[in-house]
């Protein structure tokens, strides 16, 4: 049906039908799917199609998926230039999207019955174009940037509802602020996305919202987290000061050993004890810093 005649699409390929769009357009407003025939192009007019390296084109015959085409120029055999042939381009580059989930409509509840809404940013790409077309786009003539946002939002609601229901509000805030975002949260979302041929690159929850009746309790939890983070920071500072003192003690022991105030055995015994304490303090600082990051996200 389609025969590849060239590996790379160039500006000289003016006789090929390509997916025309503005590449300086904000990624948030780009469509991810384009289909022919449409209101402007009949398949009887199509002799060649062009596919860019970051696109995939899937062609159908009487609704049946025949083949996925990668980057290049393809010639359509004459007997297939009719409207029972359909070609769908898919953008497989990374797409940046903003998402918003209103607490009034999503019915997302924490384990301790806080009703949640949230907004943020997400990066995705279409990893499996055939799965995305078959399970998401189907026969829709248009699948716009708005369509993509609405679909992603619905998937996020499903995944977030599952995760949040297992966490208290305190735990959710701590989890959503983690610097390491490859935890359970992303795992649940990734699993949901893969069903539809999507790959989650990154997600950032910028803010959460609760109904007015929960606002005071929510603020109290934020205060608890802030207080706990401050206590940890103070503990870290104290440990760091203690480490400096211990390092000075090691230097004093070395000076005493060099000038003969203590013998080799005494120096070795005392310095080993200080080094053990230093190692233990350093491990405690590392552990506390990790806990601090989980609370404040940095």
Strand order of the largest sheet: 1-7-4-2
CATH fold annotation of the largest domain: Tetrahydropterin Synthase, Chain A
Shape: elongated
The number of helical segments is 7
CATH homologous superfamily of the largest domain, by name? Band 7 domain
Structural class based on helices, strands and sheet pairing: alpha+beta
What is the count of structural domains? 3
CATH architecture term of the largest domain: 2-Layer Sandwich
Radius of gyration: 30 Å
N to C succession of SSEs:
EEEEEEEEEHEEHHHHEHH
In terms of topology, how is this protein built?
Layout: E1 2-6, E2 16-17, E3 33-36, E4 48-51, E5 55-61, E6 64-69, E7 72-76, E8 85-91, E9 95-101, H1 103-106, E10 108-109, E11 115-126, H2 129-137, H3 145-164, H4 169-176, H5 184-194, E12 198-209, H6 215-258, H7 264-296
Helix pairs in contact: 3-5, 4-6, 6-7
Q: What brief labels describe this structure?
A:
24% strand; 43% helix; alpha+beta; Tetrahydropterin Synthase, Chain A; 3 domains; 7 helices
Outline the structure in words.
The protein contains seven helices and twelve strands. By secondary structure, it is an alpha+beta fold. It folds into three domains: 2-91, no CATH class; 95-210, Tetrahydropterin Synthase, Chain A; 216-296. Helix content is 43%, strand content 24%.
Quick take:
This protein is α+β, with helices and mostly antiparallel strands. The protein is 43% helix and 24% strand.
